Amino acid sequence: MGAIRVDVVVAARGDWRAVVRRLRDQTCAPARVIVESAEPGGDLPADVVVVAPGRGVATARADYVAVLDERDHPGPAWLAGVADAAASGADAVRWGVLTVGADGIVRDVVIPPGSGAVTGRPRAGIALRRTALTADGRIRPGTRAAGIARLLVTRRGAPAPAAPPSGGDRPVVSVVLPVRNAAATLGAQLAALARQDYPGRWELVVVDNGSADRSMALAEEARPRLPALRTISAPTARSAGVARNAGVRVAAGDLLLFCDADDVADPGWISAMVGALADADLVGGALDCSTLSPAFMDEQPVPLPAQGEPLSFARSANCAVRREVLAAVGGWAEHFPGGAGEDVELSWRVQLAGYRLGYAPHARMGYRLRPTLLGVARQKWAYGLTGALLYRTYRNAGYRRRPWREVLFSWFWMVRHLPDVGRPGTPRRRWIRYAARLAGFAAGSVRHRTAYF
Fold this sequence. Notes:
Elements: E1 6-11, H1 17-23, E2 32-36, E3 48-51, H2 56-59, E4 64-69, E5 72-74, H3 78-87, E6 92-100, E7 106-110, E8 115-117, E9 126-129, E10 144-156, E11 173-179, H4 186-194, E12 202-208, H5 215-221, E13 229-233, H6 240-250, E14 255-259, E15 264-265, H7 269-276, E16 282-288, E17 318-322, H8 323-329, H9 342-352, E18 357-366, H10 373-394, H11 404-416, H12 426-447
Helix pairs in contact: 10-12
């Protein structure tokens, strides 16, 4: 940590010993840990002191003082990141905080701006040079904070869920397949999963997300071909994130694979995903429209390495993650409308928390695009609707919105090509795709109070 020394203040209302123990895992040790608590500390190490609530910052003696909440789980590199930012000359430092509810599901993601004014009294989530504080413990006027665009701290409402017990006949791999009214396509995916060449133990968890057709009857009929098949129901919310989380809760594997009910996995899909997870924490596979949607090859999804974003993402239709990583970051987000955008959000959250994203080109999934105009319009509307939510959450980490010149050109193109609506085939479908997405951008901007057009 060089010449920068940091005292850590823990604002405690209950048992604070767990966060103090976690601070022992830091790659750079704090100068002292100062606990604000009404309870006496008892027999404490020399570098831990307990003071009355509100007295922690005033008790600090190091160059910097960082404030944590007792619910905070700082990552091992948290204090090193703070010290590096402090060494650059910043008077204050803020870091990204991931909030996870008592049910283990992500509730909020806060990424601070690269630079911004800070005022008032120090609260959990900030570190300050002691000279930036007044005699009564307030932040001096004009103080600006440098922001660390990484999720260095997780704030938990309850301890992370325990992993299933190891050993015995427990499968190493669990495939989670959410289903909702997929009777027309589910049979082909179940047949494909029954043909997997993976030699190890694996299970399939089919999650019914409120189907009103024969989807679950088809799943039961596939049981002779898939003996390690389990079916559960998650009808409370029509959300792919809810369904996937429900599947994860009952899954037994350490490696969690996800696919959709309207696609078809190659025989080597599981094997390729398992191999890719040897070198990554979250993996995206390849999507191929040539078999299931050959008429719409112009809509083939861009492969993960060619996405061109500051952070790439694994598509939920073909991805895999280590169980402990998914639990650490709070599972799949459940607040994304229409089952769109939650894969982008998870991928960004995983990477900003310090985990590795990988690509498995040999984990191929036959990908089915929406065949009807209504279906494609609903999908693109949902994608557009979530754009503003993603931008609002991750703009300080590099999530970009389009320049206004490009936005205006898009709307000009829509007006110019309006006659395409009367032309069957590709021109009409293309116009509807673009129009639905642009309309979704506009509606999402209003809903989330963030301009993203």
